[in-house]
Amino acid sequence: MALAKARITVEHTGAQFDVMFNPEEYSLNKDNNFASQAIPGLGSPILQFVHGNLRTLEMELFFDTTDTRADVRDQTQKVVDLLKIDSELHAPPVLRVAWGSLQLRCVLTRANQKFIKFLEDGRPTRARITVSFSEFIDPEREAKEVNRQTADFSKGWTVQRGDTLASIAWRFYEDPALWRPIAIVNGIDDPRSLVPGQALRVPALPFTDPATGEVTS
Fold this sequence. Notes:
single chain; elongated; Membrane-bound Lytic Murein Transglycosylase D, Chain A; 36% strand; seven-stranded antiparallel sheet; 13 strands; two-stranded antiparallel sheet; Elongation Factor Tu (Ef-tu), domain 3; 14% helix; mainly beta
């Protein structure tokens, strides 16, 4: 049984085409972004998750019209045109790339053409296109698929060696200057008195100081 051809579909029009030859391989990439924050008193910065990046798909497509002596650019242009701004969308079209278990809703971000065989009159008959696609998630889909969680309730933390109130505030609030609510709810008068193994309660923000009424948010 012949292997099914990889197919590219333009989402808003339904137009689709199969690649001339399936790629020999493809690369599907995913990574996360982290930020480091230096905290006084710690031997190294704290690494904080910022956000995940979209998946990217990279592959090389092969085109050959030598047998028919046709200009191979008639075929490669189908791919390159996916970079053009659509007049209805005012942006390049959203695509669906499908090949077996590979299913990706994406946009084409790069197409690098290389022509490697030519007819006597100079017309190319063989080409390779290195393409890169980036996953596309619109805000409505993101809201449905991502389960966002907020720090709206008190949490617990066991003090580790080297911890300071500032470093704990960074861990939970992403701001080392917001250490006072932790000190208040745990009755800590001296921020330097933390002991490894000590159990702390980390209150949710905004926090109201019961003694002064001051709000920390």
